[in-house]
Amino acid sequence: MLAELRITGLGVIDEVEVVFGPGLTAVTGETGAGKTMIMGAVELLLGGRADPSIVRPGAVEAVVEGRFLVDDDAVGSGVDGDPLDGEFVLRRVVPAEGRSRAYVNGRLETAATLAEVAGHLVDLHGQHAHQRLLGATAQRQALDRFGAIDLVPLAQAHRRVAEIDAELDTFGGDERARVREIELLRYQVAELDGAGLNDPNEDDRLAAEEILLGDAVAHREAAAAALELLDGDGPASEAVGRALAALDGRSPFDGASVRLAGLVAELGDLASDLRVIAEGLEEDPARLDAVGERRRSLAELRRKYGDDLASVIGYHREVADRLGALEDHEARASALDAERLAAEAARADAAATVREARRRAAPGLADRICEHLRTLAMPMATVEVAVDGEAGGEVEFRLSPNSGSLMLPLARVASGG
Fold first, then answer.
1. How far apart are CA 66 and CA 252, in angstroms?
2. Which pTM value belongs to this model?
3. Which homologous superfamily is 2-122 in?
4. Please, how many CA atoms are within 13 Å of residue 344, restricted to the half-sphere of its CB?
5. Can you tell me whether residue 59 is helix, strand or coil?
6. Strand partners, 95
7. Domain ranges of the chain
8. What is the pLDDT of residues 27-78, one digit of tens each?
9. Cβ-based neighbours of 221, under 8 Å, separated by 6 or more
10. If you count Cβ atoms within 10 Å of the first and of the last residue's Cβ in the chain, which end, N or C, has fewer?
């Protein structure tokens, strides 16, 4: 069902949007109001000829969009059983200059494809305009409805083959592209494996170590100066000791004496810690060079593979997984090839079943049509429903209107009446 029609820049129409409800909708108006343009818009959605002269003067292009709701009864009525259900949005763009464009659900298609899809959705009635039954698609659908042909297995078989083909396409594209990608990934994985990176904070640790190693002499001199003031008879220790001796035995200052005694002990511990640290500060040019080189390597990895080391580690995992998948290509591709052969066989079986069902139904449909033609004062008319092609998808109605007339395709002999 046509649920909504939107027209912009077509003939006398600047912009209009029509929302259709169930049942009959009558479009009325005085001469020149644009009724014919609405029909012309529908014909454009049917793949009709797009003449730039229909573009509204001053407009860059004419645009027609139609939203269609497909009933469940239409499921399986597409080409060779391809399901047609849900919602379809068809769009036709006619530029004032250049070629027209056609879209089906937002995807660019040819006008022929648009006509094929729209043929399932719209039927025009009128003198020389009841064209749907003249088309191969409508004739095939009529036969399928008459014979209650079950197209679902064929549609499922089509989809399965398409799914396998899509998965095969993910294996690195063509062979040369796959080989190139594998070579690149092997280089990257080897480089990242060789880097041995597993700590996202490694560069921060190395930066601290580099500062420590780069100024070891000055660090030891600073520690020695501090120890001279704190250790043994140094000025700080001596001053605290004298203060403690001055308060000795003075009960009002017992608390202060305790604190001074603790400070003496703390100064001793602090001096001991400084001595240990200073003794560990040794010049190590080789280690300093190694730290600098490692930091430069980490910087290069960040330049190539991520903003920080955590990102580099994550990228390492990703490319390793992708490389593994590509290197397993042959085994998986072989399995998919086997699956595809089975799916193709299933599709062929389903197609053969549909073809046979269509051929069985064809004579009955031809007889039924002849019965109707006799009620229309065509007693000598004979009809043939020809079925050919894969899955019997090439269905053609043929008519001989009178005795002795040639049996010709319906599209060639049907008159407007």
1. 100
2. 0.44
3. P-loop containing nucleotide triphosphate hydrolases (3.40.50.300)
4. 7
5. coil
6. 61
7. 2-122, 201-307, 349-413
8. 887 765 677 788 888 889 888 888 888 898 889 999 999 998 876 544 444 4
9. none
10. C
